[in-house]
Amino acid sequence: MTQPNPRETFVETVQAVNYSNGVVKMFLLGQDLLHLSKGLDPEEQKSELREVIAMPLPGFLYACSVIQNFMQDEKMQAIIQKYKDVGFLPESANEQAGQGNTQAAAE
Q1: % of the chain with per-residue pLDDT over 70
Q2: Which of 19, 22, 48, 56 has its CA 20 to 30 A from that of 87?
Q3: What is the mean predicted confidence (pLDDT) over 51-69?
């Protein structure tokens, strides 16, 4: 039996999370590859929707738990602190609040 070939997609961030009819959708953004390939000014770089991941609510909640445990790991905390120390990440998570968006539609 042939094994599936897993696919990896690089994205910059999550633009939005939407819940409707028992399904959570995460909208993931990445660089506009057409803009990038034309060698246009990086200052005018735009993001584009690169991927939408849909999963049932229990799977999404489990994924959140996995990510929460990952973020609480001592090694990950040390890496995050190093990024903050050199200015690649803001000191407070509150500085990034409001960048994404969440929606829950009526079931």
Answers
A1: 83
A2: 48
A3: 96
User: Residue 49: is its pLDDT beyond 60?
Assistant: yes
Q: How many residues comprise the chain?
A: 107
Mean pLDDT, to the nearest integer, of 75-102?
78
Contact yes or no for 60/102 (Cβ under 8 A): no
Question: Is 3 part of any domain?
Answer: no
- The residue range of the domain holding 56 is 13-89
pLDDT value of position 97:
47
Identify the pLDDT of residue 31.
Answer: 82
String of DSSP letters for 15-40: EEEEEETTEEEEEEEEE-HHHHHTT-
Compute the C-alpha angle 72/96/44, nearest 5°: 130
Distance CA 47, CA 78 (A): 29
In a domain, residue 7? The reply is no
105 found inside a domain: no
* 41 part of a folded domain: yes
Domains identified in the chain, total number: 1
